[in-house]
Task: structure prediction
Amino acid sequence: MRLGVPGLLQTEAYARELLRTWRPGDEGWSETQVILRRKRQARLFSDDPPMLSVLVDEAALTRQIGTPEVMRTQLEFVLGMVDTPTCEIQMVPASLGAHGLLGGTLILMTTPRGQTYAYEEAISTGTLVEAPERLQHLGRHWDRLWGRSLSPMETARYLKNALEALP
Result:
């Protein structure tokens, strides 16, 4: 898990703030990355969206990125995606400690035809995983963590409380 909201779930303002810290002063690069993230995100709202399951670390939802308004908009967006017909988000509580997916972002997607893919994301790169052996390995870690994370309902409750706590 990484300490920011996964790119597929980032608002433009949040992404821009986060990316500016990666390469300060390189506005062209940051804007290109924001555009690329928005293009990937558009697939979630297409006529044929993938099923999306996301585990997001508690620290990603509490770490202040940008202004309180940037965080408010970001948390509201995630809250709106927590439990939809094509998306389910569960928060990994910090109290779980170390686990097999610590250190990056992993998103699992299943197409309407039943094909499963994993998307591993770092701050400036992303990798689509299609190899069956790798998918199986990631899936085992995912299943263990999914079962120990907050349910979508509990995640939504946590997000509502986090929104109320913002100035």
Notes: The beta strands are 51-57, 83-84, 87-92, 105-110, 116-121, 126-129. The two ends are 27 Å apart (CA to CA). Residues 69 and 166 are 9 Å apart (CA to CA). The first strand starts at residue 51 and ends at 57.
